[in-house]
Amino acid sequence: MSGRIIQVIPRTDFAFNLPANGTQEVFLGERGYDMRDWVSGIFPVLLHAKNFTASASAFADFNVYNSFFDPQDPTVLWANAAAAAPGKASVANGDVAPLLYTAALTSPIGAYGRCSLLFNQGANTGACTLTASVYLLGRDA
Fold first, then answer.
1. Average pLDDT over residues 106-116
2. Which residues, including other chains, have CB under 8 Å from residue 12's CB and lie 6 or more apart?
């Protein structure tokens, strides 16, 4: 059995100041990580710092989406962000950094994975910040 550790992003600062109940999705790292041979995996997210005090209902979701490259059209990354993510780590408003989140990658694990951060501002406006590192760990067949 072998596996892979992929650093999606190193320690990175994010800042948001959206309208009330506004959302913003930020895609992280490369546009597709090769997971073709994975039979299982985890999605570790390291929360280094967080300040959501401007909005008591703000939250952030780190997601892994299945995606695919068509050999006949390799310039297009095929993905469906509306589909259930095989991996998701949710940062709740009350969470205190430093904190480690580990989400299991659920079946089916697609050929490629795309990672994102989806931030929801919550009911109030104001600056919200977080600092995180994101990884993918996979076990091959």
1. 86
2. 131, 132, 133
